[in-house]
Design a protein that fits this description.
Blueprint lengths: L1 H7 L3 H22 L2 H11 L2 H4 L3 H16 L8 H29 L1 E4 L10 H13 L5 E4 L2 H10 L3 H12 L12 H5 L3 H17 L5 H6 L7 H33 L7 H16 L3 H4 L5 H16 L2 E4 L10 E7 L2 E11 L9 E6 L2 E3 L2 E3 L2 E8 L15
Parallel strand pairs: 5-9
Antiparallel strand pairs: 1-2, 3-4, 4-5, 6-9, 7-8
Helix pairs in contact: 2-6, 3-5, 6-11, 8-14, 13-14
């Protein structure tokens, strides 16, 4: 739960507390995965007649547990065992630092536009949101950020090419030494290149301790692919098959950009804009037009209705403490009986990491003769409003 809050409600005090306790949490799970007595019990059970009588699914659970013990260093001897624990603690700290750098770099960048002509092509809801953002900070003009609901409309619809380029470069260089903002020492402090370099080195060392040639082999142990070479061969074969179609589409887009948009040599920051214009010209289709039919209440009603029909359940609003006013809580019932609950957190904000994900708050299991119902988190980073959203309803992309 604390880890989830760290991803959706990041504050300086929470970050400080989280980082202070992260080594303890990492140590606990490392010691659990290396617990010799527990590992011995699993091995003994796997060699017992009872294991042989289990259904295939239950055997698989035991097999996975043994696999995870081995990947967790349970078979290592000192001093390799202690070094493995050190690697886990350092990697956890670096992974947290990576996420913090991305979030901080995303929040650090703002672009204030003061010339209204630079907003050509943007739709009214995007312009209004940018104006409100500027007013909130006491600025005159229109303020854009690297939050996805602010960034994407610029890339799709802004006619002013320098605006697209500025936003594209800022987005793609977040948390790197090439970042446009913040500048100087602040940019260096958020540079994830050293973090990545150290993580790669530590992962390689971890693989060696476990008896693998590289970390790719470790990563594939619980997966379907049998070797890194098989993965690479698959990707190269996929690229060989897909490349001609991609080159055809790109050539078509370039011809359209040159003929219709005065872009003889479209760059990366032009592609979303040109693609949107080509789609509108060829198919009379516009995301901006379509999204008015997908306001959040309508989307959720459709989604929940489909789930209810497929699984013979009911999804109903419920009540629980939340970490933000935008968060909603629901319950899932079957035949009037509670079988699960979940939170939805669907809007972008400065204290929330980018992306979309699901976490579990509580798993389903038997406790003292009764079944503990599960609770999940569903998070995304969509726009909080479109045109007229405040007057009718909140919407999401």
């Amino acid at each position: 739960m604390v880890g989830h809050l760290n991803g959706v409600a990041d504050t300086p005090p929470l970050r400080e507390a989280y980082n202070a306790n992260l080594p303890k949490v990492t140590q606990f799970f490392t010691e659990l995965s290396q617990h010799e007595a527990l590992f011995a019990k699993y091995k003994a059970f796997a060699a017992s007649p009872q294991y042989a009588q289990l259904p295939a699914v239950r055997k698989r659970i035991v097999d996975y547990a043994l696999r995870d013990f081995r990947l967790g260093g349970a078979e290592l001897k000192s001093p390799a065992r202690e070094r493995f624990a050190e690697l886990q603690e350092r990697q956890a700290a670096l992974a947290q630092k990576f996420s913090e750098n991305v979030l901080d770099a995303t929040n650090a960048f703002t672009l204030l536009v003061t010339d209204e002509s630079d907003l050509a092509g943007l739709h009214a809801d995007t312009i209004e949101a940018a104006r409100e953002a500027a007013q909130k900070d006491g600025d005159a003009g229109w303020k854009f950020t690297l939050q996805f609901p602010s960034w994407l409309p610029v890339m799709q619809y802004a006619v002013h090419r320098p605006l697209r380029e500025r936003m594209y470069r800022a987005y793609c260089t977040r948390a790197s030494r090439e970042a446009l903002a913040p500048e100087g020492e602040a940019a260096a402090a958020l540079d994830n290149a050293p973090v990545i370099d150290e993580l790669l080195a530590l992962r390689h060392e971890e693989a060696g301790l476990l008896g693998y040639a590289n970390f790719a082999q470790v990563s594939l142990v619980p997966k379907m692919a049998e070797s890194p070479e098989q993965v690479i061969a698959f990707l190269r074969d996929l690229a060989r098959r897909a490349r001609p179609f991609a080159e055809r589409d790109m050539a078509e887009l370039r011809r359209f950009a040159a003929a219709e948009l005065a872009l003889p040599d479209p760059q990366a920051w032009d592609l979303a804009f040109a693609s949107e214009r080509l789609k509108e010209a060829r198919y009379a289709f516009s995301d901006q037009e379509v999204k008015q039919y997908f306001q959040l209440p309508r989307v959720l009603d459709g989604l929940f209705g489909l789930i209810e029909r497929l699984y013979s359940v009911r999804i109903l609003p419920d009540e629980a403490p939340t970490w933000h006013p935008d968060v909603r809580f629901y319950r899932v019932e079957r035949s009037g009986q509670l079988i699960g609950q979940f939170y939805t957190d669907l809007y972008a904000r400065a204290s929330k990491r980018p992306g979309a994900w699901m976490d579990d708050a509580r798993s389903r299991r038997r406790r003292h003769g009764s079944v503990q119902t599960p609770i999940a988190y569903r998070s995304a980073t969509s726009s909080r409003r479109w045109a007229g959203a405040r007057r009718c309803s909140r919407t999401t992309t």
